[in-house]
What does this fold into?
Amino acid sequence: MIPPPGGATKEREVPPPVPADEPAGRGLTGPGSDTRRVDAAWELAAGDSAGDARLAREVGIPEFLAGLLRRRGVETASDARRFLAPEEGDLHDPRLLAGAAEAADLLLSTARRGGRVVVFGDYDVDGVTAVAQLRAALSRAGADAAAFIPHRLRDGYGLKPDTVRRVLAELRPATIVTVDCGISAVEGVAAARAAGVDVIVTDHHLVPAALPDGAVVVNPRQPGCGYPYKELAATGIALKIAEAVGLASGRGIARASLLRAACLGTIADLVPLDGENRTIAALGLAHLARSRAPGLRALLAEAGISAGAAPSAEEVAFRIAPRLNAAGRIDTAMLALALFEERDAARAGEIARELSARNAERQALERAVVAEARRRIGPAPDDTVLIEGDAAWHRGVLGIAASRLAREYHRPVLLFGFEGERAGGSGRSIPGVSLHGILQELAGHLDEFGGHDQAVGGSLPLARFDDFRRAARELFRERVPSDALVRRPAAEAELPLERLDAAVVADLARLEPHGAGNPRPVFLARGVRAAGEFTPVGASGLRGRLRAPAADVRAIAWQPPSGLAGLAASRRPFDVHYRVAEDRGGWGLRVEILEARPAAGERRVEDNPTGAA
Ligand SMILES: [Mn+2]
It folds into this structure.
């Protein structure tokens, strides 16, 4: 048995005891008070079984798998091959990325002149892994390459003029190359250029109308860039620049090593895991099993991944990325970078343990922010956007707390920390609501503002906070259609429990790695029954067994739908939405219940307000 990791991770529960050992009637109270949900949509979207059959025949896979692929945008046999069996040949040529060759030439000419290159990054996993790759590639090519990652609390995000002046004074660069920032840094770039320093901006954030002047810009989203895939994370772009440097210098570093770093940043940054991102994630995860780098080995061990095993994308998202991110949330992300660069196993182990300690500290700070924000917002808010701020809130956890609250309340959330005269904050949105797009209309209120569709950061004078909040509430009420605030979880397909044999489970595993853009599929099973009682697990979960004709499977519900406990106790048939859970603990097949309702023939009219049959 692997020792439990430092952080609380929901996957690490103990194997379920025999139900009869549990005292009766405990914990049958349904969801915790922090769980808000609306009715699930029980009607399945009409499929196209002829299309599924055609793809299944062409690729030689079962029809249900073809249907799942087609719902993920895979239509042709060659797309299906790329999706099911990603290989290195699927990676695009780095020279297709506009500016990449020019950037590589500039970096190498700086190196030849004996000038120093500063890789200027960001404090999250995407930024740190991008710095690690580029610095390694530049060092291999013979450059004097230094790393600089802004301090989240002291410097703030990105290439600000003050931060640039600090870098110029402390590191004396000839060339600055940014990763994961810089695309809106008109003034920061100007400050560097005024000091005679060359600047390369590599970024994946949305491209503003005015690009920084006098910089080589690499961003697949910029107009005129013909790169075939637009959704790379910063770490994916860094992989491309690192390869371009290797091609131009004739001294590249192993692609496996680049992919290990890039897969972590790609999964952590929540970019869609489709196209080239899926290739990077799938290949990188496989290479992680064979890493010899002491830092990566120590980090994986600290996260509870067995030696020699490839972590899943979910393990990266829930156990590995939070540890790397914790460094920059609590203090400096240079600690996370040091882990990638450490060559001594004992020291790497110390850094990994320190990251776990910071992650535990992060969790405590986050819980405090979430609890206070929840208390102020109340159980059923009227506002379309939730905006709160506090002087006691730690800036480093606002984004992660906002993301938790956005999921919970199913509406966009902005949280601010007040410091002196300023309010600095982070926002997270829900699918279908472009937080970035709507807030852009309020750019006049904000001094700093940037991000993605779903995630933004910004700041404003504290004196204007109330005005901003009033204006934002009004604008969001106009812009966000009310049905966007209704959560209607839906299943992709019907899959009776008795179909869950080893072959089907193996087919489903071919859809991994799961993540943004490729969620673990949700299935509908009708007329299941509980075998015995459901008993509490974890903070508010329930577990038990589900029985259907010719099936008996272990089931767990981390956030039990209301009524599950009652349905289980009733011994009457019910329908469930479920996922096939990852089998990481060696417990075999388990399903995760997401929704439940009485089966057809068991429902009264009021049980079925959607009118679904
Ligand atoms: Mn990023």
In short: Residues 126, 180, 204, 233-234, 269 surround manganese (II) ion (CB under 6 Å).
